[in-house]
Amino acid sequence: MTKARSGREQALAEREQLFIEATRQQLCDKGLLGVQMAAIARSCNFATGTLYHHFASKEDLLIAVCTELTTTRRAYFEKVAHSDLSNRDKMMGFAVAYSLFAQHYPEHFRLEQYIMTEVVWLASSASRREQFLAATQPIGRMVEQVVRDAIASNELEDHGQDPLTFSIGQWSMSMGMHTLIHADGILDMYDLKDPHRLLLRNVQLHLSAMQWQPLDDQPFDDAALNSKVAYLCDYLFADICREKGSSLTLGSA
Length: 253
Prior knowledge:
Elements lengths: L1 H29 L6 H7 L4 H7 L3 H24 L5 H18 L1 H10 L2 H4 L4 H27 L15 H15 L3 H4 L5 H15 L12 H23 L9
Helix pairs in contact: 1-4, 2-3, 4-5, 4-6, 4-8, 5-6, 5-8, 5-9, 5-11, 5-12, 9-11
């Protein structure tokens, strides 16, 4: 009985993974508005009812896809957290990891923005929301630990604040800039070029504003920023960049 149940659970998990991969493909091919439950089921050679047996709604399915991709994003952040970089360089490494992941998986960023809207989030099941939040939490904890390490080594004064308060600004900047990047025409309207350079420069300025040691005494040195980004990509993400066929490069200043 136990073996049969275990085999059935394995088959269900494999089928669910098949549906998730098919949905990702639809997202890449047709965009968010093109995702159709019947088409996904058909592409996997299953009835639509079978798909609904796994996912009670399209909202649940989209959150499951985002949860899967969040696990992949966590791998980018783990490379930074487990490195021997200085704490301040790790914070820059997290910003580079965020940008690289958004470049390699553009469908994830658009999807995450979508599922976090009230109309989608509240229409999904509590269990799927909990799975997504559980997948994202380790990323925040990795960043929090770097802040704690910096405070412990006297590179950063805590001012009586919780460690996460020192990283929320960088997180907000990263999410905000990528929202602008994916909103076609917004940055062009203001003639803002090279958004990744703008983001990473502001991350450096934000760290220095908090007096995070060692201070960057040339925050507007474009050559130095180019060199820093190239180093972080090569040191932390060389294998991923080779696999994906692209690295994070900054445009001409």
